[in-house]
Amino acid sequence: MTPSFDQSYNWPARIVIPLDLVTRLSMYASGMALLLITSSYVFEVIMRYFLDAPTSWSSDVIQLFFAAMIMLALPEVTRTNSHIVISFFLEKMKPRSRQHLGRVLAFVGFVMCILTACICLQETLRQYDRSIETLWSHPIPKWWISAFIPFGFALSGLQMLRIVFDPDPNE
Q1: Contact 112, 74 (CB under 8 A)
Q2: Nearest CA to 12 among 162, 157, 160, 164?
Q3: 78: closest CA among 126, 116, 52, 45?
Q4: Is 86 exposed, middle or buried (0-12, 13-18, 19+ CB in 10 A)?
């Protein structure tokens, strides 16, 4: 259930179109991360069990791209309203009340996502400033991984805000 904006509303369309573009690009990047995870895992299995030459880097790559995959997919899940919902109480409400409560919950979600993004961004910047690295076989700067977290939460928050101002929400 994707929120719909009438193209006659100029200011929402100017915001929503780029927001959706970034969200979709983020989802495609998440798919690429999944492809890299799968490829690394298959390569590791072949090297370890068929050639008796395990890699020292595949576990590190899988961990890096797993974090990226999750956080890059989160905004699209939010945009399409594909997250898990316990809707028992909402289903019992009248449509008008359900719509109002949905907007309130979306606004609370927006605030929480933006606060989480701010906290995670502060931690990511701290990791960058202190040159903190992973404890992997092949260490990398930890902020490379952490940078995906505030991005995912901020973009999800903007998608939540979009739901709040959607003139015709699909319930």
Answers
A1: no
A2: 162
A3: 116
A4: exposed
Q: How many CB atoms lie within 10 A of CB 72?
A: 25
Over the chain (171 residues), the average pLDDT of each successive run of 10 is 52 79 96 95 92 88 92 94 78 83 90 97 96 88 94 95 74 45
Q: Which amino acid does the sequence have at 19? A: L
